[in-house]
Automatic annotation (TrEMBL):
This is Indoleamine 2,3-dioxygenase. InterPro entries: Indolamine_dOase, Trp/Indoleamine_2_3_dOase-like. SUPFAM superfamilies: Indolic compounds 2,3-dioxygenase-like. One of its GO terms (molecular function) is metal ion binding. Belongs to the indoleamine 2,3-dioxygenase family. The keyword Iron applies.
Amino acid sequence: MQPPIPVLADYGISPVHGFLPDTLPLSRLPDPYYNKWEAIVANLQALILSRRLRGVIDRLPILSTIGLEHDAEWRRAYSLLGFMAHAYIWGADTPSDRLPPSISVPLLEISERLEVPPVATYATLVLWNFKPLFLDEGIDNLENLATLSTFTGSLDESWFYLVSVAIEARGGPIIPLMLNAIAAAQRGDVILVTKCLQAFAERLTDLTTILQRMHESCDPTVFYHRIRPFLAGSKNMAEAGLPNGVLYEDGSGTETYRQYSGGSNAQSSLIQFFDIVLGIEHRPTGEKPNPGSETEREYRAAQRHNFIRDMRRYMPGPHARFLHDVALVANIRDFVEEHTDNRQLCIAYDACLTMLSAFRDKHIGIVARYIINPSREVRARSRSRSPEVTRRRQNIAVSSRKEQDGEKKRGTGGTALIPFLKQARDETGEPAVEEWTRKFMKRKIKSEGVGDFFAGKPEEGAPVEQDVEVKGLAWSWTMDDEVGGICLY
Ligand code: HEM
């Protein structure tokens, strides 16, 4: 028997705002008992700048979660503690490998209740961290959005989060639209499926337009050096000063080190929903396509050693469950493959793939501008300094040559960032049905080759960068632009 088509309300998903909560995020917790948390986050920048944050948090009492009532309050508390935790870990000269009980005790409890990891996730920073400037205007409009909390107080940081909020809001209505398409495909209603796909493709172009506005108010240098360090996780962070991860102290004395990925847009359920509903499969990085049998396709779809897949563990539990349940009923790709004689349907389906691939294409340009270029500049500068100065300045913002147990990271299986993103983009085009679209996607990929415009070319005489580590957001990547690898996580 066919599993039922998921009902949005069962997963806390809004038919209008998608994965953003239907009830707007709270600007503060109503119970004055939590004033201390609110006061710390409201003064985060000053406390970091004056180097007093750790002292203040060390003296903070362990507040109980008993005063949290509605879901919106739990979400606000999660967001506050996530900001405090990352500011505590990364907001000083050297990172802290321990979180005091005043943060870890409530954070662990709240995370368990909300089914999210006890770190700053996409939910902390984006989904549950915005407010509209005017209540009667939409939240899919960047001109009507503000953030509730930031680490740096900069417009750049707010903008970085708000671009994602606007994308989530504008993309939200695609969710019920495509659930309708799945139902229509079950009934064999070709006309309705086609219409849904056409509307989907049109809205996807809106999302790319919003994404391209990133550069308007988020400066790559500010992003790379000031914002990104606070988003870092505790996994694979030995070089940055967290060889074991972070100890979440709870006073029991039996705590063990924990390691988590950093906050990243790769944790957006919306983009993964698009992939699932269109039948796009992401293989482990470096694995080539193998157009095999149905069983082979199903097997690959179930692969868990896959970064994109792994990011689901960082989504709110109900959202991740929703993706799982949608995958059980996703039938659009098969439906299109069964109706290849219907041009309108095939063109509409291919248009969605093309638009999503274009979104990923623009995103690669952004990553090159915001991560690859600044990390090259840092390396170029550090090469001209004495090794001692370079060593002293080494921190999370600095990419470095990495050796693990005497072996280069690449040898132990590092994943190159740009090839990973390019593979995700190329996989987006793979299910295309129209001969023309397939040829177009292939040509586009080939003509781009190794050097993306924004990434530029490596300096002349510069050493080959394939063993250089690049700190992404959720993960550490290698710089090598030509070949993929296997993820380390
Ligand atoms: C300055 C802006 C941005 C930068 C520097 C950036 C950087 C990155 C990086 C480094 C990764 C690799 C995974 C990691 O290390 O976390 C990644 C993946 C990803 N990012 Fe972004 N990102 C930006 C904005 C966005 C926005 C606005 C979205 C849309 C919501 C987005 C969606 C994704 C997705 C879906 C992935 C997973 C790979 C894929 O599915 O293609 N990113 N990003």
